[in-house]
Write the structure tokens for this entry.
Amino acid sequence: MQIITLTTDNGYQDHYVAAIKGKLLQSLPAAHIVDVTHQIAPFNIIEAAFQLKCCFEDFPKGTIHIVGVDSEPVFDQEQKSLPGILKYKGHYFICNDNGFFGSFLEENPAEEFYLYTAIEQEREAWRFTTKNCFIDLAKRILNNVSISDFATASTSYKRAFDQKPTIDNLSIRGIIVHVDSFGNLITNISKTDFERIGIDIPFVIKYHKKEYFIDEISQTYNTVSQGERVAIFNNSGLLEIAINRGANNGFGGASKLFGMRVGDPVHVDFVPQGSKDNIQSLF
């Protein structure tokens, strides 16, 4: 099965997504098209990388992921960014080399990486590059054309700045990196970060105001009563703060109820036994 996923910042108000899908179906009529999201904030490649990191391994190997976010190439030598093709864990990712690849991979090595330099002579592909270039690159891959036959191998790619948590002996300082459609607050603090400090050490998760804190990780949202705050490690292994069923009746979940948004801080302080007199001494 020819699976192609689409991640763009085009939204649904205009014809852009329909045009991309129409061109895909013309070029690859047997393709199975899956929308990851078209609601990426304009030009926000870090958000695009986050969304794909959370789901790409749920697809079969050989899937092609087209990322149409900030896709127009730049030919100025100081800021040059051309279409890139990444192979990683058996998947293919097509995106402008605008920082997406480095943000997506983080410290993981690429299996293969190529730049499509021929676009410099293909003026018709300079605009709406997702439709007018990326689809053709996907078609060549699915037709088993060796990528090295039409693109140039490269060992470097750009990386957008994405803030990582700060970790010391007894604390983790992170931020909210995403608010999902339920209003749940997803942080950049991973389960691995927690385990680096200790699995059995008591802790307090602090955010927004001192009266808002959580001192345990739950297995599911329903571990707590409806309307109660809860912290879990989500399916991607990231710390998430939520209100159980808080999005019911239009309340908007934890984001609205706590007044928090992307970029706001979340701190975790670990408290070895006997290090503090009581929980209030942490604030």
About this structure: The mean pLDDT is 90. The chain has six helices and 15 strands.
